[in-house]
Specification:
By secondary structure, the protein is mainly beta. The protein contains one helix and eleven strands. About 25% of the residues are buried.
Length: about 220
C-alpha cells in the first residue's frame, strides 16, 4: 500500500495536463454511511512479557458517516476527498488490558475517530449509466476518545486514548459502482505506521474492510 503515494502523485500530474483538453463533467458533494470491521495487531518491545494477551483481534463492528467531494478531470478520471466520523465497538480486554477487579469490571468499549483522505478515481465504463470504478486514497485518522462502561459506575471517558498516538496516516482502495446519485462501494484501509504508546514499549496498527453507500446532494457543471 505504501507504493500508493508514488502512483497517485504520478497519475495526478499526468491527468492535470490531459484534463485541459477534454470536456469536464463537473463536481458533486454528497453524504455517505459505512459499516464494517477493523483488524488490529499489537506489538511490544522485545523485553516486554505480554503473557497470554491476544496480539491479533478485531472490532465487533464499526459504523459511521461523513461527506465527500468529487471533481471530474475527464470522463474516466476524477479527484475526490472525504471526511468522516466512525464509532468502533471493541472488546474492553483487547485493545488495552486494564486491571480488572470486582469494583471495576468493564462491559463495553467504544472508540471515537475522525478521518480525512483524498485521491483519484478511475471509471471503467464511463459512458454507461451504471458506472463501475476503482479508486485509491491517502489520508489520516485521528483517535478522539474512548468510552468504557463499568458494570457498577457506568460510562467513563478516556481522553488520552490509553496513551496511544492519536494521529496516523492511512491508505485506502475501493471498488464499486455509481448510478445516478447513488454510489455503492467496498473499501479496504490500511494504517501506514504503527501507533506507538507514550511509554514507547508497545504499539498498535490496524486495517479494515467497509461497505459504503453515498448519495449526491449537490452537483454543478464546470465552466
Amino acid at each position: 500500500m505504501r507504493k500508493l503515494f508514488t502512483i497517485l502523485a504520478m497519475a495526478l500530474v499526468s491527468l492535470s495536463f490531459s484534463a485541459k483538453a477534454q470536456k469536464v463533467a463537473g463536481w458533486e458533494i454528497g453524504i455517505q454511511a459505512e459499516y464494517g470491521r477493523d483488524w488490529y495487531h499489537k506489538s511490544y518491545a522485545a523485553d516486554v512479557n505480554y503473557g497470554e494477551e491476544d496480539l491479533d483481534f478485531s472490532s465487533d463492528r464499526s459504523s459511521g458517516g461523513g461527506i465527500y467531494f468529487e471533481k471530474s478531470l475527464n470522463p474516466r478520471w476524477s479527484v475526490m476527498g472525504q471526511v468522516g466520523y466512525a464509532q468502533k465497538k471493541v472488546h474492553p480486554q483487547l485493545f488495552h488490558y486494564p486491571s480488572q477487579t470486582t469494583a471495576h469490571y468493564y462491559t463495553r468499549e467504544l472508540h471515537h475517530r475522525v478521518a480525512a483522505d483524498a485521491g483519484l478515481r478511475l471509471y471503467l465504463n464511463p459512458e454507461s449509466q451504471f458506472k463501475f470504478f476503482v479508486d485509491g486514497k491517502i489520508g489520516g485518522n485521528a483517535f478522539i476518545s474512548i468510552v468504557q462502561r463499568e458494570a457498577r459506575d457506568g460510562d467513563r471517558v478516556i481522553k488520552d486514548v490509553f496513551g496511544f498516538q492519536r494521529v496516523a496516516p492511512v491508505s485506502s482502495a475501493s471498488v464499486g459502482f455509481k448510478w445516478s446519485r447513488l454510489t455503492v462501494s467496498a473499501e479496504y484501509r490500511d494504517d501506514l505506521m504503527v501507533s506507538k504508546r507514550s511509554d514507547k514499549r508497545s504499539g498498535i496498527s490496524g486495517k479494515g474492510l467497509f461497505g459504503k453507500v453515498g448519495v449526491t446532494l449537490f452537483e454543478g457543471k464546470s465552466r
